[in-house]
Amino acid sequence: MARRTEPFPRGEPARVVEYHAHVYYNPRTKPVAATVRERIEKRFPVRMGRWHDEPVGPHPISMYQVAFPPDLFATLVPWLMTNRDGLDVLVHPETGDGYTDHLIYGMWLGTRIDLNEKFLLGLRAKAAPAAARPARRRRKAPPSPGTRRRPAARTASRTRP
Ligand code: ZN
User: What is the pTM (predicted TM-score) of this model?
Assistant: First the structure.
């Protein structure tokens, strides 16, 4: 597991310009997810992502994304902790390295879901083709909703070993 053998990629939280909360659901809990979504929209000035009933990017099950600026973290995250109505939620920063953001920096409310690590490795190889990834890993991956507005990869390139 690359995650365990690499040195921990220390970051600079002050440079994080945006966070995501990914709210996971299944066909049975979709109505619950709809209620949570409505309540978030009413309460917080967030950028709400579309419903993704099908797996997308590194997310192996249905979810929608909530993008928010750092100044909402202290109110939105505690709200999600206490109002997620049993849904599992991933909160992660956007530093420019999707792999690190989702798999190492992220925090889970509820139960951790195994994300698609291969997809995230693919993103990393794409962002830095010179990085030491075998060529066979460097296949084309569809764009992920979590990476559309990534800030420049300056933080990631500095912290990459
Ligand atoms: Zn995301």
Answer: 0.77
